[in-house]
Design brief:
With about 290 residues, the chain is α/β, with parallel strands linked by helices. It has two domains: about 160 residues, Periplasmic binding protein-like II (D-Maltodextrin-Binding Protein, domain 2); about 100 residues, D-Maltodextrin-Binding Protein, domain 2 (3-Layer(aba) Sandwich). It has nine helices and 15 strands. The strands form five sheets. Strands 12-11-13-10-14 form a five-stranded mixed β-sheet, sandwiched between helices. Strands 7-3-8 form a three-stranded parallel β-sheet. Strands 4-5-6 form a three-stranded antiparallel β-sheet. The longest helix is centred in the C-terminal third of the chain and has 16 residues.
């Protein structure tokens, strides 16, 4: 079975805050400096919905598995300790449920087998939600999604609508969901295809193209990198159509794990409402990709 990881690997770092109605959160500026750009935290939880937590004792412990090569979601820090957004979220879930947990790193291709063999209870590692994986697994509520975004040069004034982009050239990586999305929803906009995301971003920075359309998570880290050199900024979006960009990241569990799934969903909802989710999000993602 092909086990596709949801998100492309991105560089590790620290991110964001606040909330509104689904699917996005509110915006916050640093209290001491009103000139700091507002940042947005996504909110995937309906405030009118309350997940009923299983009876005490129904879930006594959770054996999480993840990987150690998917920064900033799960990776080894400088001292060799397993960390990352997914790892800290799993620990927060266990704290919220007041139960014992373990978190073990395994090769990505072993994760589904571990759940099926009952040597693990839950996988928090970006296993793609698809008809294929749903045939053998169940999933918690989605806790993060990777939107597509436009980036333009910092001094540009471009309206990133289909009408506003007419006459401009957009860099996009060939044979990707982002190319397919532009072809479907921006058919009259000029597209220039590149073999890699690095090449497309370099073309934007040099002025070879007017904008680049790609993965929002990768672009958030590129914008703050030395490679970008402060050249560019997000514009428009985010774009979250699941047919092109997937359903998002969720915790994978075995098919029959009803109590565990309810416990995870209840904990995720509580973690968000208490602000713990926002704190973790800000720690690992310093630039908003929403």
């Amino acid at each position: 079975m092909k086990r596709r990881r949801l998100l492309t690997l991105v560089a590790a770092a620290g991110l964001l805050a606040a909330m509104l109605a689904p699917p996005f959160g509110g915006r916050l500026a640093h209290a001491a400096d009103e000139a700091v750009p507002m940042v947005t935290i996504p909110n995937f939880w309906d405030p009118k919905r309350r997940v009923e937590r299983p009876p005490a004792g129904a879930v006594q412990a959770i054996r999480f598995v993840t990987t150690d090569d998917f920064p900033p979601f799960n990776f080894l820090d400088a001292e060799g300790h397993l960390t990352g957004f997914n790892v800290e979220l799993a620990r927060a879930i266990c704290t919220e449920l007041a139960i014992r947990c373990t978190i073990q790193a395994r090769p990505f291709d072993d994760l589904i087998h571990a759940l099926q063999a009952k040597t693990a209870d839950a996988a928090i590692a970006g296993i793609a939600i698809s008809a294929e994986t749903r045939s053998v697994l169940d999933f918690s509520d989605v806790y993060v999604r990777s939107p597509a975004r436009f980036v333009i040069r910092r001094d540009a004034n471009i309206d990133t609508t289909p009408a506003g982009l007419r006459g401009h050239t957009i860099a996009v990586v060939a044979r990707t969901a982002h190319e397919a999305y532009l072809a479907s929803f921006f058919p009259e906009v000029g597209r220039k295809l590149y073999p890699t995301a690095d090449a497309a971003r370099a073309a934007l920075k040099s002025g070879e193209v007017d904008a680049h359309f790609g993965d929002g998570v990768q672009l958030a880290f590129w914008l703050q990198s030395e490679a970008a050199g402060g050249c560019c900024r997000f514009a428009g979006g985010p774009y979250l159509e699941s047919r092109f960009f997937g359903d998002g990241m969720a915790i994978a569990v075995p098919k029959e794990a009803g109590d565990l799934k309810r416990a995870l969903n209840s904990a995720l909802e509580s973690i968000h409402s208490k602000g713990v989710y926002a704190e973790l999000y800000l720690r690992y993602f310093p630039v908003s990709f929403y």
